[in-house]
Write a structure and sequence with these properties.
homodimer; 9 helices; elongated; DNA-binding; five-stranded parallel sheet
DNA sequence: TGTTCATTTCAGCAGAATTTCAGCATTAAT
DNA sequence: ATTAATGCTGAAATTCTGCTGAAATGAACA
């Protein structure tokens, strides 16, 4: 799957690229509107992630021009504020979905997958690891029959771990996926949140095998 | 009997159309998800045959959106693989039956007939949560036997909460559902309306368990 | 025009969540 | 055994969220 990211803020662009590449997508970057438009109209992408405000040629114009030229690559528009008007104009211009900054990488990924129509992602509404269950829609987590109360960050982190159960996830991977792209998070923060999670899903059940494992030097993993 | 078939593979779509027309059904075709959704939400069909994988908008989203908008036309979902998980998700999303590809036309016909025979579901006019009752047509709300006077926004908000009872609804979800699409509403407005509702349906009944719950970091939920 | 009611915003507060910090513990490598 | 590096922990610092009383705005209507 090839994805083109058109975003003038290099830092954000780089962070998106990195995250998507970890998900095994092939990512090209463009930093200006014109460059983005040229690539989009000459190369064959599966998805275009398009910033609304760009030097050279703004996102809406690009979108409109591409559609006019019968290029129907799905477009995910990034907009700075939740300006309803922007959203409408963007969708009018041919964007397929939009995302309001700032967003966490998981949100971006969810939209990307939706646009690429991966049926896989539809499945993960309810996640299981051993007797731990996470209901994404209800924001509910249970160990066996016991409900577990989590804060929203704790919830996102657990969700990310469970979506990748059995896999070792580095602290860096965790921060790029669970936090907003512009969050400047110390690795220690992840450690603290891991501890919080353990205190809520492992420590209260000493008779059960702990689910969250530390893999020294690499990261963390959840498995049953 | 009017049937809408949403299927991107033209060959399959044409074949279904032909077969159904031989059975004296009136058949419309849509080749993309968005087109399908538009037709389904504006025209009055007796049945929708919906492919799961579609360009533009997948079957599950269409299904979910239609149900959300109180369109209860029976849906027969066509799925490529016999993924149980897909089926469950599909049923959750409001589909009434399934058919796994590839199928014979006779199988399809059997399901179509079964679904058309079913008595039409009655739309939920009267909503209940514990002893709270909301009469949509009458714009009337009662806690037990006591009538409660609500403003129109309060009413819409309560209706939305009750239609999704037990589910956590974020402030953003609430604003997009209860307010006009172009309303630019602060999250605080939702907070204020929640307070108003509480003052009318919970606070006056201190002996009863409050129905509206805050789930910090996620949103609000009504449940009995 | 004024009055009333509904709607929306504002500003301040309290408490919760998030993040950092500094010291300690554990591990792996010499 | 010594030493870095890495991870863990309690607690403090900071930021964020939700709640609230009250004010501003808007709409309906006499």
């Amino acid at each position: 799957m090839r994805i083109l990211v058109v975003e003038d803020e290099h830092r954000i662009a780089a962070s998106i690229k990195k995250g998507l590449e970890q998900e095994k997508y092939a990512v090209d970057l463009a930093y200006t509107g014109t460059q983005g438009y040229d690539l989009a109209s000459t190369e064959d992408y599966d998805l275009i992630v398009l910033d609304l405000m760009l030097p050279g040629m703004d996102g809406i114009s690009i979108s409109r021009e591409l559609r006019k030229n019968k290029i129907h690559t799905p477009i995910l528009m990034l907009t700075a504020k939740s300006q309803t008007q922007d959203k409408i104009t963007g969708l009018d211009a041919g964007a397929d979905d939009y995302l309001t900054k700032p967003f966490s990488f998981e949100e971006l990924l969810a939209r990307v997958r939706a646009l690429l129509r991966r049926p896989k992602k539809i499945i993960d509404d309810v996640l299981h690891v051993a007797d731990l269950t996470l209901y994404s829609k209800q924001y509910e987590v249970k160990r066996g029959r016991i409900p577990v109360r989590l804060s929203s960050k704790e919830f996102s982190l657990l969700q990310y771990l469970m979506r990748n159960k059995g896999q070792i996830l580095s602290k860096e991977q965790i921060t790029t996926h669970v936090w907003d792209y512009d969050a400047d998070i110390l690795p220690n923060t992840v450690e603290v949140y891991i501890r919080n999670l353990r205190n809520k899903i492992d420590s209260p059940f000493p008779q059960k095998k702990p689910l969250i494992q530390t893999v020294r030097g690499f990261g963390y993993r959840i498995s049953g």
